[in-house]
Each structure stands twice: as structure tokens, then as C-alpha cells.
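Continuing the series of single-chain predictions for the mutant panel. This is the parent chain; the variants come on the following pages.
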Amino acid sequence: MRYKNHSKYLILLALLFVSTLNFGQNTPKFKVVLDAGHGGKDPGTMRGSIKEKDIVLDVVLKIGKILEQNKDITVVYTRKTDVFIELRERANIANKAKANLFISVHCNGVKSTAAKGTETFVMGMSRTDTNLDIAKKENGVIFLEEDYNEKYKGFDPNNPETLLGLKILQEEFLEQSIELASEIENNFISKNNRFSRGVKQQPIWVLDATVMPGVLIELGFVSHAEEGKYISSEEGKEEMSKSISDAIITYKNNFYSATLENNFEPAIVKDDSSESNNSKVPETTEHKGKIYKVQLEAGSSKIDTKPANFKGLQNISVAHENKIYKYFYGNETDYESCKKLLEEAKKKGYKSAYIVTFENK
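Parent structure:
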């Protein structure tokens, strides 16, 4: 691939990122975009009468039905029928909706009949041979689109050099995506008794082009006799839809907060105890724009924010929302600085800590 085409591709994604930078964090309701992979002229993976496009559409509709019962969640679908939707349009739907989360559902299939297991992908740069093959499969639908070369500016899903050129433009959302992916895979194991191949990072176009946390879920292998039968059955689709829905709701409860503009303002609580006199906790700044904090934990109990209660960490803030207290470490205007705080928190034992973004306008 020529460098000229590579540059055009990165510019395209950069412009998309800039034009949608504020998407996903300022909506009154938690908005989820559900994407059933493939469709129409693109059946996806097939084995006998089993078609990937049919399984994933059923699962997505079941997920949506569950989520729509929650008054605080709005669901947007990239497709609700057997139609072909271009990858570019799938990303556009999510970005235009100003979604908080993007969920793409797929099935796996390989020549070997022994391969099995669920796996959930987030945008990333790891490249084992197996993952690269999956990325090529999911990106390969590009070739079914008209004028694909012009639309994707030289992006070739079969060219490793193209995959090497992908950038994680939404880096600040990667931690959240990984947390959601982990929750999904844990549910598959504990609730559905499925074999999990784990959470993986892979450059997949539709995840790169959506400017919000997102995951691509592989429900299992249709090429595996037992697993193919399960994921195409009504019982299997019901069970896996419930596990994915539960993970999304858990993610919402743990991660999503309305912005400062929407009256969710983390209040810095000063601690006047002797344990904190040596280092005064700073007041909330008047910074306009994004503020980054590390969420340490959440629960129904109110905890004094003195360092002794947070393994020696100082500059602790607390927010109260829907009877839940959320505790944050730090108050940074720079994402890279907050990443250092996240590393520090995890070394202290907060293994599930993550970065939360607030918009102060």
C-alpha cells in the first residue's frame, strides 16, 4: 500500500473523530447502538442451513427488547431486518446517534470443526495470526460495497500493512471497552456455561470509526457441531442475549454518569482529620472542558474520604447518584496524567479501577 493512501485513511478517521468528539457523553439517556453483523447479500459465516446473519439479528433484537424495558436506556439499531448495511453506515448511525455504547454481534467459523468458544473484541493493535484472520473476515465485507476503494481511502482488510496503520483515536474509551468486554465474557462463562477465548484487542474498522466505547462479540463457532447448534437455537440465543444485556446494564450502572452539565457534579469532600493534614485535598477547578478522574469503587454506603479509607490515596472525591456513592481519585485535565493515576490506583489494589470522563461546560 502506498503511503499516500495510508495518509488519506488516517486523515479520514481524524476528521471523523474531530467532528464527533462530543458524541456519547451529553445525552439525557444512556444510548446503546446494537449492530447485527452482516445481512442481506452478505450472509456471514455459514454451515449447512445455519447463517450468521440470521443468528446475530435474532440475538440483537432480543438484547434490544430487554434493554428497552429500562426507562433510562435508549436503543438504536443499525438493522432490524435482513438488509445489507455498509460498515461506514453502521459507524455513521452510531456517531450520529451520539451513542454512549456500540455493540456489534457476530458468529465465528473456521475450516477446523474443533475450534469453539466465545470471544469479545475491542479496538487494539495486537496481531496474532488467529486474530488477524478474524479481523480480515469481519472487515472483508468492505469488498461487497460499491466504490469501496474511494470510501475507505485505500484501506485493504487483507493487507497487514493497512492493519498496522490503524490508530486508536478513541484511546480514552479503551479502558471502558475492555471492562465491558470482560463483563460479557464472564457472563458467558458463569451464566451460560460457555467456553471463553477471552477478551482481545484487534484493529477492526467499525470499532475504530465509532467514537465511543464499543465491542465486537463473537457468540461462538457455527463450524463446531455442538456450539453451532446451541447458538442457533432459541434457548441459546435467549441465554446469550440475557448475558449481553446484563453486562450492558452493569456497565451503565458502573460507568455512565450524566456530565457536569447534566447535574452530576463530583463534589470534593475535604478531610480535616489528622491523617490528611500533611496534604490538603484540592478544590474542584473551574476548568472548562474535559476532566478525567479514576473511579475506584461504588456502593450504597457512604465512606469518609480520608486517605486511610482509600489505601493512602489522597485527592478523593465522591458523587451521589441514584442511591449509589461513587468514589474518584484525582482531578486531571490531561488524559495521559490520569492514566498515571490509574496505574497508581491499580498498584494500590484497585484492580477494577478505570478512567471516567466528565464534561464541564
